[in-house]
Design goal:
- The protein is α/β, with parallel strands linked by helices and 289 residues long.
- It has one domain: Alpha/Beta hydrolase fold, catalytic domain (Rossmann fold, 3-Layer(aba) Sandwich).
- 41% of the residues lie in helices and 17% in strands.
- The protein has eleven helices and ten strands.
- The strands form two sheets. It has an eight-stranded mixed beta sheet with strand order 2-3-5-4-7-8-9-10, sandwiched between helices.
- β9 (225-230), α9 (238-247) and β10 (252-257) form a beta-alpha-beta unit.
- The longest helix has 28 residues, at 2-29.
Amino acid sequence: MNIRRLIVSLFISVLLVAVAFGGAGEALSRPATGSVGPAPLDLHATSVVVRTASGGAVSGWLVLGRPRSGAVLLLHGVRSDRRQMVERARLLSGLGYTAFLIDLPAHGESTGDRITFGVREAEGVSAALDYLRNRLPSERIGIVGVSLGAASAVLAKAVPSPDAVVLESMFPTIAEAVSDRLVRQLGPAGRYLAPPLLWQLPLRLGLHPEQIQPIMDIPSLNAPVLIASGTADEHTTLAESKRIFEAAREPKQFWAVEGAAHVDLYRHGPKAYQNTVLPFLEKHLRSGI
């Protein structure tokens, strides 16, 4: 009788763990869509909807700048939307850049039934870049991407490549991203719980972890790149960001943001952000024009 109870208890425990991991997988990939509302009046933005190659819709705000001053596509982080990038848009617009803030697929007012950690979000990036090139053919185009936005920019493998790319807090691989987050929550044992979450990718998303490895695709990013990482970031460690930097092609620049965790690097230190990111964009989007 005791053996039977033990077997039943073990079965229930395994079932509960499976349900817990299934719920976690559902929560991570569930779309973060919803109304974004109107653009802040001071942006003087125009609402834009762009179609992707697969027929989806990407919504955004276009803030036109001065002619031949450069255009920047702004890409938010996971489970956020274009509003996360409003302060950067204000900064760039004040300097004459055109700013295009979009909701990545499955976020904000863009379509999409699942968050795919950069793979299908990359379609939205490609569509937005095509829109900017067609709308502003004389402008050099840059990208500023945060976390998921950064990964989406790299996984887009845009042709032609942007003229400058800023990648903030980008994970090297989905396996490391999941492991880092579990370790942060559960301690060292958390890394052994990553496989059950990763095993769900083919079932939920039709994707494999090997398809979500920005560090493998960054060498094909044929553009000057600035890689930024917080020194206290536990979601994407400084060591992981340095590996990404090593994999990137020249010209490249690394910025270790002192004391920053996995946070909005602009809000963490606006002055340091301006002193680092703006000269990079100025050099590659405006020099020689």
